[in-house]
Amino acid sequence: MNSYALITGGSQGLGKAMAEELAQKQINLVLVALDSPDLYETAHQIQKKYAIDVKVLGIDLTQDNAPSQILEFIQVNDLPIRYLINNAGMGYTGRFDSFDVSFFDNLLKLNVLALTKLTHLFLPILKHNAPSYILNISSMAGLFTMPYKTVYSASKQYVYSFSRALGEELRGTGVSITALCPGGILTNEKIIADTAKIGRSAQILSSTPEYVAHFAIKAMFDKRKMYVPKFLVRLYSWMRYIIPKSIQVKMIGNSLRKKVA
Ligand SMILES: NC(=O)c1ccc[n+]([C@@H]2O[C@H](COP(=O)([O-])OP(=O)(O)OC[C@H]3O[C@@H](n4cnc5c(N)ncnc54)[C@H](OP(=O)(O)O)[C@@H]3O)[C@@H](O)[C@H]2O)c1
To answer: CA-to-CA distance for 234 and 108, rounded, in angstroms?
Structure first.
């Protein structure tokens, strides 16, 4: 079967790097992101480099009907989706009460609702095309409780917990689901500058998008239930089992308070 991978947030950052990783494996792509020049430029670059088909769909995933419009696009174009990569997401660092509530409304629609609806809508197709794969991008923030990233951290805990639970329901269906929990990904100048501001601890827990993408796609093919790329990040993530929760929250709060100030 000439299968396709659907990647949300495929125009830049980790999504773009995962698109390239899949293109190297001769997997056709459907890239979904906001309707911006970046999306068409990324598709053009990949199409030029690899002998695969790349389709694009510019759409705002915070719109209620976006997931069903994506499904319609796939059905009209008769594209056999075997890989669903829920990558689009937004984050922030700052005091909870310094943001307008509409910001959190958008964040939850993108990080939580769109991912859930897309998974639900595409499950029948993925079962039909099995063996097939879902890769949901959570974060290290989804393994901890993070002051100054309150709603982001909670949204990524949802992604992690949802993926683990659904994975168990899907046992025996031929559809696997992987939750990826990366540390910092150096996707743009602002993240690179912010990481430098927090200091060495943040720098050693960060990686390039290409590095994370390589291990994300490998974890997906290996049908890992969850995966934390980079040994030092994995080591750090084990602190959640060792340090009492109340101390963890204080430590993270103290470290991020510097950045917010
Ligand atoms: N960067 C990190 O340090 C880090 C760490 C751990 C986990 N993560 C997670 O990894 C994933 C990718 O992060 P990233 O840093 O690569 O992000 P990014 O560089 O900001 O890219 C985000 C992607 O999502 C798309 N997108 C944003 N809002 C959208 C919307 N409303 N509708 C449709 N598409 C939208 C963007 O499209 P446009 O190009 O059109 O804006 C872009 O393709 C996210 O889920 C993030 O939470 C990131």
So the answer is: 26
Does residue 136 have its Cβ closer than 6 Å to ligand 1?
no
Q: Which of 84-88, 182-186, 193-197, 254-258 has the lowest mean pLDDT?
A: 193-197
Q: Which residue in 73, 29, 82, 80 sits closest to 54, CA to CA?
A: 29
In the predicted model, what is the mean pLDDT of residues 228-253? 97
Q: Whole-prediction pTM value?
A: 0.97
SS3 labels along the chain = CCCEEEEECCCCHHHHHHHHHHHHCCCEEEEEECCCHHHHHHHHHHHHHCCCCEEEEECCCCCCCHHHHHHHHHHHCCCCEEEEEECCCCCCCCCHHHCCHHHHHHHHHHHHHHHHHHHHHHHHHHHHCCCEEEEEECCHHHCCCCCCCHHHHHHHHHHHHHHHHHHHHCCCCCEEEEEECCCEECCCHHHHHHHHHHCHHHHHCEECHHHHHHHHHHHHHCCCCEECCCHHHHHHHCHHHHCCHHHHHHHHHHHHHHHHC
User: 152 catalytic, yes or no?
Assistant: yes
184 within ligand 1 shell (Cβ under 6 A): yes
Nearest-atom index, ligand 1, CA of 10: 43
Q: Which atom of ligand 1 is nearest to the CA of 137?
A: 45
Residue 62 CA to ligand 1 center (angstroms) comes to 13
- Can you list the domains of the chain with their CATH numbers? 4-260 (3.40.50.720)
Ligand 1 mutation target, pool 35, 65, 185, most atoms within 8 A of CB: 185
pLDDT digits (tens, 9 = 90+) for 180-210: 999 999 999 988 988 887 788 788 999 999 9
